Amino acid sequence: MRAVVMTSYGSPPVLQPADVPSPPERAGWVTVRLAASALNWHDVLVRQGRYRSPLPHVPGADGAGVRVDTNEAVVVLPSLFWGGGDAAPGTGWEILGDHHPGTYAELVSVPAECAVPRPRGLSLAEAAALPLVGVTTFRALFSRGRLRSGESLLVLGASGGVATTAVSLATATGARVIVTSGARHKIDAARDLGATDGVDHSAADWVEAARALTPGGAGFDLVLDSVGRWEESVRCLAPGGRCVVLGANAAQRASLPIRPFYFGQYELIGTTMGSLRDMAGLLRFLDDHKVAPPVIDRTFPLAEAALAHERLEAGAAFGKIVLTHD
User: Fold this and answer.
1) I need a surface site. Which of 20, 82, 313, 315 has the fewest CB within 10 A?
2) Are 170 and 260 in the same domain?
3) pTM value?
4) How far from 148 is each of 29, 134, 144, 172, CA to CA, in Å?
5) Which InterPro entries match (predicted)?
């Protein structure tokens, strides 16, 4: 089968089209013939060698297509071996494309439970873009963050898959959403999705500017921090507010003043990806609410995965970048 393979770690050009063996049959697993796959920042980290993926390797976590055995239209849930607990994944958990061949290929093999019925009303590109950011954001907002209708939410960032999905899900549940970005056109695009407004997070006073957009300037009930700006995120909170952390692109370490934290009655909550139960919750949410489909920035042919990665790393995209497998 055709696939995109990396034989070394490095910059986007290490991603090259190649012929590789089709996945073998094994008990409890199914093969999905993929029509599209979506990029995630996680794929960049895999390409760079952050997860020590075996070489040669086919990356990719997200995909949409049909089960070969049943011809059922499915999306791929990339959360493998989560385990039986809801609080956190088990020790065997991993993301598809880390150590098992991923979705930058014509075929992918996944545990049967991870081939999930494709939601109604989504194009193939939109369906491929849904699983990783969808289940990650649903868990962050609702399973972990406990977001409720009428609450205020601050989303750090405005243009990535998590940010755009967070705006869509949160506004559908009746929350008031503010975003941050260094580019006004991205804030305007987030407003088109349902965000109330946004602030420039490159400004020195952006925390104060964000708080000023909350009722009475009291701060946010929930902050979604996918970049690692903890100190500023906590300062954005209203008393008793929650900060959900799910990324570290901007910083690998954080320092917090302790006394203001506990006097503020704040919560700092870590999360990543999501379980089968989170995915089921997301699909029920999509059935029960009017939610905008995943935002697609651009599509590339599978063979141009390296170019797609260059666009992802340049930070120019608004929404998801998708590979088509025609």
Assistant:
1) 315
2) yes
3) 0.95
4) 37, 18, 12, 11
5) ADH-like_C (IPR013149), ADH-like_N (IPR013154), ER (IPR020843), GroES-like_sf (IPR011032), NAD(P)-bd_dom_sf (IPR036291), Zinc_ADH-like (IPR052711)
